[in-house]
Amino acid sequence: MRLKTSLLKEPKHILFFLNLLKHKELVSCVGWTTADELYSCSDDHQIMKWNLLTSETTRVVKLPDDIYPIDLHWFPRSIGGKKQSHAESFVLTSSDGKFHLISKLGRVEKSVEAHCGAVLAGRWNYEGTALVTVGEDGQVKIWSKNGMLRSTLAQQGTPVYSVAWGPDSEKVLYTSGKHLIIKPLQPNAKILQWKAHDGLILKTDWNSVNDLILSAGEDCKYKVWDSYGRLLYSSQPHEYPITSVAWAVDGELFAVGSFHTLRLCDKTGWSYALEKPNTGSIFNIAWSIDGTQLAGACGNGHVIFAHVVEQRWEWKNFEITLIKRRTMEVHNVINDAVDVLEFRDRVIKASLNYGHLVVSTSLQCYVFSTKNWNTPLIFDLKEGTVSLILQAERHFLLVDGGGLYLYSYEGRLISSPKFPGMRTDILNAQTLSLSNDTLAVKDKADEKVIYIFEALSGKPLGDGKPLSHKTEIVEIALDQKGLTSERKIAFIDKNRDLYITSVKRFGKEQKIVKIGTMVQTLAWNDTSNILCGIQDTRFTVWYYPNTVYVDKDLLPKTLHEKDASEFSKNPQIVHFVGNKVTIRRADGTLIHLNISPYPAILHEYVSSSKWEDAVRLCRFVEDQTMWACLAAMAVANKDMATAEIAYASIGEIDKVQYINSIKDLPSKESRMAHILLLSGNTQEAETLLLQTGLVYQAIQVNINLYNWDRALELAVKHKTHVDTVLAYRQKFLEDFGKKETNKRYLQYAEGVSIPQN
Question: Which pLDDT band holds residue 299 (cuts at 50, 70, 90)?
Fold first, then answer.
C-alpha cells in the first residue's frame, strides 16, 4: 500500500497586491465537505474550494485582514443515517481569540469571543451537539452548536495545542505541554493524565472506531496509545518535529505530516509508505469521508492531495491489487494468469473470501466470482460510502452510515438488522461477526452486550434478549460451520480472557465458559470449527472448542500450542484459511503458519457421521490430541462405541468403565441421562429422568454426586424412597465417622414430617 500524491505547480493560496507581486502564505487548515470537495484556509485570509472531479479551484470568501485561520472542522454530516441541517457549515478558529461559524457559501453566521490569545483548535462532537475549543490561554471550553458557552472544562498555565473528542462524546482529550489529558464532561469524574512525549505535543487525534489515540510532538516522534494511556507504538525520531497526525475514518490507517514528509501508517503504528513532497511542514491533515484520500495543509502555500493505492487482498491462490483508483489487478499464483478489473467510479472498500470478491465504489457494489472475473453482478448502493464489508460462505454484509445490509452473492437484499441506539459509523471487524445463519454486533452504548440476529430475517435470535457478559467485551467472532442450533460465539473481554458460548438459547440462561487467558487476537477457521488465538507467549489452536460443553477436563488435551515469541509484541491474526494461519507482526511483517490438516478432516468425517473413518484416521495419525477431539465429538453426538475407543486410546480408563456401565442400562432415556451426566450436565440429566418417570434413578444420581439435600427433596416431593436416601446418608456418615448435623435429615430420621416451602 502506498500514497499517490499530487501538487499543483503553483500554490493557489497567493495574495495579489495592486503591484501584482505574488506572496506565498502558509495553508493552516483543510476540511472535506464530500469525498471530492475540499475547503482550505490560509494566512492570505482566503477560503478556497477544491473540486477534485473537475480539478477546479474557486475562492469562497476573503476573510477580514485581522483574521488568521488556525483550525477548521465541518459540522457532522449524518448521525445514525439521518442527514443534519447544519451539515452545510463549519467552525473556523483564528488567531484573534474568536471562533467563527461559517456557511458553505462563505457567509460568517456568527463570530464568538472564545479565548485570550489564539484559538488553537476547535472540534464538533460526533452528534454535532457540542463544540470544544482550546487556546493559548490554556483553557478548554465546551460550547453549544449555536456558539453559547456551556462550561470551561479545564484551565492550565500552558497553551493547549490540540483537542479531540472521545468515541462516545463523553470525554475530551487535550494536550498540556508534554502530557496528554483525558477529562470526562461529568464533574468530579476521574481524570487520566500521562507524560506522552519528551517535547511539546503539537497534535493529537482519537478514533471512534478503534478507540486508539495518536500523538505527535516536537521530540520528532509520533505515538499510538490505547484509551487507558498505555503505549502501543512509538516511532523512531524523525529529522523534524511531527506537525500533524490524523486517523482515517474507519480507524485502519493514519497519516503523519512533518517537514517535506508525509507518511501512511497502519493502526498498529508501522509504516506502509513514506513520501517526501516539496511542501514545507504539513500543518494539518484531513481524510476524505470514504477514507480513500487525504489532503494536507502545507507551509509553502500548497494543498497536497494523496490517494491510497496498491492495497492488497489475498485468498488461497488469488492476489488482488488496487493499482489505480478505479482499476484492480487479479493474479492467480497457480497458473500466473492476470486479469484487470475496471470500475466506473473509484474503489472505496473491497473484501476477498469464500470464492467471491466484493467491491464497493462510491455508487455501486460489484460481486465477482473467483471462477469468472468477466461478468460481475452489479447493483446500486443506497448510501454510497461503505465503511465495512464482511463475508460468509452464503452471503455478505455491507455497513454504511445508514445501517447494516445483508446481501446474497446474487445481489438480493436479504435483511437489514437494527437495534436501539445502533451506530454503524463505529463498527469494525472486531465488533461485528457474520456466519451463514447468524449476525453478532457488539453494542457501543453498553460494551458488555452483544446483539445476535438471525441472518435471513434480520430479527433478534431466540427470545430477543442480547447476550450479556460481566465485563466489557473487546472482540467477537462467530464460528462458520455446523448446524444453526450449535452455533458458537467466541469473545475476548477487557481482561483479555477468552470465552465461548452458544448463541441459541431455549429459555435458559446461557452458559459462558472461559477457555483462555491473556488472549490478544483470535480467528475461526473458514471450513471447520477450529479456533486459533495468541495467548500471552503462546500461539494456541483449539481443535474442538465445544469440548468445554462435553468434557471440560478433556479440553487441555485437544489444544495445539506453539511458542509465539517470534511474533513480537501485539501480533494480529489476519486469516485462518484451510490449515494456513496468517499473522501480522507489530512491524507489519506477515508470518504464515501451517497447522495439522488432520483435525479439519476429522471434523468433516464427524459431521458426515463417518465414525469408522474417523477412528481409522486417528489410528493412522497416532496423536493424543486427535483421540481427545474424537472422544469429545463422539460424546457430543451420543456415539458411545466411538467414545469408548477414543477414551481408551488416551488412557481415560474411568470414563471407559462408565461408558460400559451406560451400555448395560435398560432404557433409552436412562442411557441418555447418563450420557448427559458424562458431559457434566447434571440438571438436564435429572430433568430427563423425572420427565420419563424414572424418579428412583434421579434420586440415585443425586446420591452418587453427594447432592444430599436435592436427593431428599426429590424423595419427599414424590413420596418415595425416603428410607433409601436416609440409609445411604447413614452409611456415608459412618464411613467417615461423622454424626448427622443436617436438621432435615434428623427430622426425617425421627419420622417427623416438616412442612414444605
Answer: very high
More confident call, 126 vs 330: 330
Supply the DSSP symbol for 189: P
Q: Provide the grid cell at 634.
A: 463422539
The DSSP output letter for 647 is H
- 515-573 pLDDT per residue, tens: 999 999 999 999 999 999 999 889 999 999 999 988 888 999 999 999 988 888 889 99
> Whole-angstrom Cα distance, residue 169 to residue 130?
9
Is 490 in contact with 512 (CB distance < 8 Å)? Answer: no
Q: Is 548 helix (H, G, I), strand (E, B) or coil?
A: helix
Cβ 455 vs Cβ 438: under 8 Å: yes
Angle at 170 between CA 169 and CA 176, to 5 degrees: 95
- Distance in angstroms (rounded) separating the CA atoms of residues 207 and 167: 7
Instruction: Output the DSSP codes for 110-122.
Output: EEEE--SS-EEEE
Give every CB contact of residue 636 below 8 A, 6+ residues apart in sequence: 546, 549, 550, 679
- b/e 300-334 (16+ beta carbons within 10 angstroms → b): bbbbbbbbbbebebbbbebebbbeebeebebeeee
Mean of per-residue pLDDT scores for the chain: 88
> 256-293 pLDDT, tens per residue?
999 999 999 999 999 999 999 999 999 999 999 889 99
- Whether residue 10 contacts residue 317, with contact meaning beta carbons closer than 8 Å, is answered with no
Type of residue at 199: G
Output the CA torsion sign for 659, 661, 665, 670. Answer: negative
Could you tell me the domains of the chain?
2-9+21-309 (2.130.10.10), 668-756 (no CATH)
Place of cell 430479527: 459
Give the Cα separation of 227 and 211 in Å (integer): 6
8 Å CB contact between 306 and 325: no
Structural contact between residues 396 and 436, judged by C-beta atoms closer than 8 angstroms: no
pTM for this prediction? 0.87
State the CB neighbour count (10 A cutoff) for residue 49. Answer: 18
> What does the pLDDT look like over 88-104, one tens digit per residue?
899 999 999 999 999 99
- Residue 737 CB-density burial (10 A; 0-12 exposed, 13-18 middle, 19+ buried): exposed
Tens digit of pLDDT for each residue in 254-263? 999 999 999 9
Q: In this structure, is the dihedral angle defined by the CA atoms of residues 671, 672, 673 and 677, taken in order, positive or negative?
A: positive
Q: How many other CB atoms sit within 10 Å of the CB of residue 679?
A: 17
Distance CA 151, CA 140 (A): 9
CA angle (296 as vertex; 290, 302 as ends), nearest 5? 135
Nearest-angstrom CA–CA distance, 111 and 572: 48
Q: In this predicted structure, what is the pLDDT of residue 244?
A: 97
Radius of gyration for the chain, computed over Cα atoms and rounded to the nearest angstrom: 32
Q: Please report the pLDDT score of residue 20 as a whole number.
A: 22
Note whether 676 and 698 are within 8 A (CB).
Answer: no
Cα 529 to Cα 285, 300, 454, 545, 600: the distances in Å are 43, 57, 19, 8, 8
Pairing of strands 149-155, 37-42: unpaired
pLDDT of residue 710 exceeding 90, the answer is: no
pLDDT (mean) for 480-503? 92
Sign of the C-alpha dihedral computed for residues 719, 720, 722 and 723 taken in this order? positive
575: amino acid identity, one letter: H
Query: Where do runs of H (alpha helix) occur along 523-652?
Result: 547-550, 598-607, 611-621, 624-636, 640-649
- Reported as half-sphere exposure (CB side, CA atoms, 13 A), residue 219 has a value of 18
